């Protein structure tokens, strides 16, 4: 019988052998290819042990400062090229999106942990197109009005939670963002400190933890996926995470089916999705991960973005005064009414604020998301082989003074320009090219209405004894506050406004 140590040793030996066999004739060694400057690493594993497990933005930003607009790293057997300026991102991932938009293989996080079902990691193909089409039907700009009524109710609930549970502001942000998407997808709302919401954020963080470069050897050396199952020491852990994630998703889908049987289910996307799948194209796993991806993506981005706004307000309060001046002019200096969707044209500073939230500290995808080149390509003297992985270095771009003057400062004024109302212009928060987030308009709307109302009603004050390190706001928080901050209602009039107009939103069905 094999001991654990023997199994791991055997697998490690097999990894080395298979790696060398797979790279003897590798294209990247061919003289016909030329890559950007390569960061020095170690044999076989390359730079896998250099990248931090979390908060990779500062690491990648430092390398960009050293190597310029592009550099190359090796994560195991995979070659990654980092794009460190908007210019090269535009040239390659936007203008040449047809060949720069697939995904590299992820045997652990996609094939095992996700049953091949996560849209974000799917390579180009019929399955990706059909799944994305389904998501587009619910998240497209044509559905804006569908989301707005839920964003209105849930942002009022958010204000009420801030007024009565200010110390739980981070949980309130999570409940708000989750409840909007849950209302549309499943026809139900979320409650503050709902254990199901906590589990959903847990599955998202588990996925992000495992997705970090260098975390899983097999994702760096996809050839290892061909090892006999008994040698795949990573597989049991991946399968446990898959079953746990699937169970969390299935709880929600089973709830829809149970309510349908009782005649108590509201119209929602999940019902339409089930009805449209009469041909059985999407098996249970694909159904669950399609719906689960919507829940995760619709929840996590908004939650983190609102936290970024609060950190920006506490550390750079000057812009808050400019936002308040506009809000008070439109909604009344003595808390006459809440900001509404119909005020959007009169509140350009809030729109600029939302863009700055997305730009300021790109905390969701600090080094972007990897895409795979589908054919050989040449650019400015470099020659890239098919299969090269590309990422936009989000942290380096966002904090580049040549692209954004005083980039560390939270300064919405920088977006008061002709592109103000184009939610994708001026930052890369939703990604470039054909992989742009399909629900970007929903995320932007979530943040806009919440930011307008929170800034109108509350002050955000930094704890001088525990200043916020805005360069180290954690991406993974385990349902804890990402930083200390004091939140207080602006005045009694604002408190009364919240009590008067938001209490009903807490109890609404």
How would you sum up this structure, described in words?
- This protein is α+β, with helices and mostly antiparallel strands and about 500 residues long.
- The protein has one domain: Cytochrome p450, CATH 1.10.630.10.
- Helices cover about 50% and strands about 5% of the residues.
- The chain is built from 17 helices and eight strands.
- The chain has helices at about 5-25, 55-65, 85-95, 105-110, 125-140, 145-165, 170-185, 195-210, 215-220, 235-260, 270-275, 285-315, 320-330, 350-360, 395-400, 440-455, 490-505; strands at about 70-75, 80-85, 370, 375-380, 380-385, 390, 460, 485-490.
- The protein has a four-stranded mixed β-sheet with strand order 1-2-6-3. It has a two-stranded antiparallel sheet with strand order 4-5. Strands 7-8 form a two-stranded antiparallel sheet.
- Strand 4 (about 375-380) and strand 5 form a beta hairpin.
Write the layout of secondary structure elements.
Layout: H1 4-23, H2 57-67, E1 70-75, E2 78-83, H3 86-94, H4 107-112, H5 126-139, H6 144-164, H7 169-185, H8 195-211, H9 217-220, H10 235-262, H11 269-276, H12 284-315, H13 318-331, H14 348-360, E3 371-372, E4 377-379, E5 382-384, E6 389-392, H15 394-398, H16 440-457, E7 458-461, E8 486-489, H17 492-507
Parallel strand pairs: 2-6
Antiparallel strand pairs: 1-2, 3-6, 4-5, 7-8
Helix pairs in contact: 6-7, 6-16, 6-17, 7-12, 8-10, 8-12, 10-12, 12-14, 12-16, 14-16
GO molecular function, one term: monooxygenase activity
Pfam families: p450 (PF00067)
Protein name: Cytochrome P450 oxidoreductase
């Amino acid at each position: 019988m094999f001991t654990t140590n023997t199994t791991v040793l055997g697998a490690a030996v097999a990894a080395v052998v298979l790696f060398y066999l797979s790279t003897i004739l590798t294209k990247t060694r061919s003289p016909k290819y030329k890559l950007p400057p390569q960061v020095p690493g170690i044999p076989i594993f390359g730079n896998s042990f250099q990248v931090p497990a979390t908060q990779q933005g500062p690491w990648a930003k430092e390398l960009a400062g050293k190597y310029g607009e592009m550099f190359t790293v090796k994560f195991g057997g995979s070659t990654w090229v980092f794009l460190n300026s908007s210019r090269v991102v535009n040239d390659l991932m936007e203008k040449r999106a047809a060949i720069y938009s697939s995904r590299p293989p992820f045997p652990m996080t996609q094939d095992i942990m996700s049953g091949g079902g996560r849209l974000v990691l799917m390579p180009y193909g019929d399955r990706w197109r059909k799944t994305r089409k389904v998501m587009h039907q619910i998240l497209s700009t044509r559905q804006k009005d569908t989301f707005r009524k839920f964003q209105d109710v849930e942002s009022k609930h958010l204000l009420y939670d801030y007024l009565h549970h200010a110390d739980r502001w981070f949980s309130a942000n999570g409940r708000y963002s989750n409840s909007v998407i849950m209302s549309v997808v499943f026809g139900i709302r979320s409650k503050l400190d709902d254990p199901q919401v906590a589990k959903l954020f847990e599955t998202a963080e588990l996925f992000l933890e495992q997705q970090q470069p260098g975390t899983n050897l097999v994702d760096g050396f996809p050839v290892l996926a061909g090892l006999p199952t008994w040698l795949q020491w990573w597989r049991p852990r991946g399968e446990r995470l898959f079953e746990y994630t699937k169970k969390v998703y299935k709880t929600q889908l089973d709830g829809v089916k149970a309510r349908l049987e009782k005649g108590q289910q509201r119209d929602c996307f999940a019902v339409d999705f089930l009805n449209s799948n009469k041909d059985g194209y999407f098996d249970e796993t694909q159904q669950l991960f399609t719906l689960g991806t919507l829940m995760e993506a619709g929840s996590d981005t908004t939650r983190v973005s609102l936290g970024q706004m609060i950190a920006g307000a506490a550390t750079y309060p000057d812009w808050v005064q400019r936002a308040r001046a506009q809000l008070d002019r439109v909604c009344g200096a003595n808390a006459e009414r809440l900001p509404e969707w119909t005020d959007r044209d009169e509140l350009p500073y809030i729109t600029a604020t939302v863009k700055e939230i997305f730009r300021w500290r790109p905390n969701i995808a600090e080094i972007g998301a990897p895409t795979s080149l589908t054919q050989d390509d040449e650019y400015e003297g470099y020659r890239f082989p098919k299969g090269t992985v590309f990422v936009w270095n989000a942290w380096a771009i966002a904090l580049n003074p040549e692209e954004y003057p005083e980039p560390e400062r939270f300064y919405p004024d920088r977006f008061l320009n002709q592109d103000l109302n184009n939610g994708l212009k001026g930052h890369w928060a939703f990604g470039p090219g054909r992989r742009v987030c399909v629900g970007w308009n929903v995320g932007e709307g979530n943040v806009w209405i919440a930011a307008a109302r929170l800034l109108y009603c509350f002050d955000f004050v930094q704890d001088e004894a525990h200043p916020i390190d805005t360069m180290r706001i954690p991406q993974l928080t385990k349902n804890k506050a990402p930083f200390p901050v004091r939140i207080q209602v602006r005045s009694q009039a604002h408190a009364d406004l919240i009590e008067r107009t938001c209490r009903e939103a807490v109890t609404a069905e």
